[in-house]
Structures are given as C-alpha cells and as structure tokens.
Write the structure tokens for this entry.
Amino acid sequence: MTDETHRTTETPSSTTPTTRGLLTDDQGKRSMMRLMSLVALFASIWFGWMTLTDANTTSNEGVYITTAFLLSAFAPKAVQKFIENSYPPK
C-alpha cells in the first residue's frame, strides 16, 4: 500500500475541522473552559451593573460577588495555560 493510496482512503471524519472561533482551542476542538470563562465574565458584568445601579445598597456583598465571578472567569484559564506549557503533550 503506497502513501497515495492511504491518503485517498482517509475518511472526512478523521480530519480536523479548520474552522476556529471564540469557543475553540488551538487544535480546533470545542473548549468548555472557554465557555465557562465567558459565562462567568458575563455574570460578573451583570452583577457589577446590578451593584452599581442599586440605590439602596448598604453592604459590599455585590462587590464580593462581582470579584468572585471575575476571578472565576480568568484564573482557571491562566492556570490551565500554565500547566499546558509546563507539561507538553506526550
């Protein structure tokens, strides 16, 4: 079997998609970490807006919730990138 024959018998499902978007990683796979980070970012923006527009606020709970969502949006992705760079794939 030659290489040309092998190339022509490949199925389209074995090739990786070339489309890359906001929620795909470097290899073109869907990334749930990016989806979770995006949801946490939108939640922090929403809680921040709710905290700033609430006229009856007497506590700092909204600030704490907004900060927690901001941390949950960016910290896991930074840790994942650090670990991926420290331990290359086998």
Remarks:
- The radius of gyration is 21 Å.
- The longest helix spans residues 61-86.
